[in-house]
Amino acid sequence: MKKYLTYQDESSNKFWSVDVSGNTFTVTFGKVGSSGQSSVKTFHDEQECLKEAEKLLREKLKKGYLETEWPEQKAEAVIKFLSDSFHQFLKTKVKDFEESKYAKAFQKINWEKEADQVFQSVCSYWTKSGSQNCLYFGMVIIYL
After folding, report:
1. Which positions fall inside the WGR domain (predicted)?
2. Nearest Cα to 125, choosing from 116, 133, 137, 114?
């Protein structure tokens, strides 16, 4: 189940969404146009998860939220967000990394030849440990 609701009045223009996947759901809410805030909740089984998600959905509908189509995200906005996030990560982490014992080992890697295998390994590890899928584009890994 995947639902997207909006609420608009003279002082508000907000959204609320729920995305159920197995025994976990993600609720995201915030001002329309923003990425909002998200929280994830995990249950013992799929039925309990779906029941709770439907309860939250009914509560929002009673408060006046309306079900609408999921907004399309512009690829440029997603790419900019990923690029900015990755750049910020690099700015804060590169100095720490350069001073670590791993820096010399990483400098010896032929990245043009090995990058694909490295990113495949990271995605494989993430998938096994978090039951999530990931894609990579160049130097950016996207977790789905």
Report:
1. 1-78
2. 133
Kindly report the CATH number assigned to the domain that includes residue 60: 2.20.140.10
Two structure tokens written together for 72: 């399309």
Check whether residue 60 and residue 107 sit in a common domain: no
Cα distances (angstroms) measured from residue 14 to each of 7, 11, 19, 70, 141: 5, 10, 17, 13, 29
How many domains, in total, are found in the chain? 2
The letter for the amino acid at 117 is Q
Residues whose CB falls within 8 Å of the CB of residue 110, separated by 6 or more in sequence, listed in order:
none
48-102 pLDDT, tens digit per residue, is: 999 999 999 999 999 999 999 877 655 555 555 556 565 566 665 666 666 666 6
Domain range for residue 92? 75-143
User: Rounded distance, CA 78 to CA 142, Å?
Assistant: 11
Query: Which residue, of 12, 32, 67, is where some domain finishes?
Result: 67
For tokens 């982490």, name the residue.
93
Residues 83 and 102 in one domain: yes
What is the DSSP code string of 126-144? HHHHHS--EEEETTEEEE-
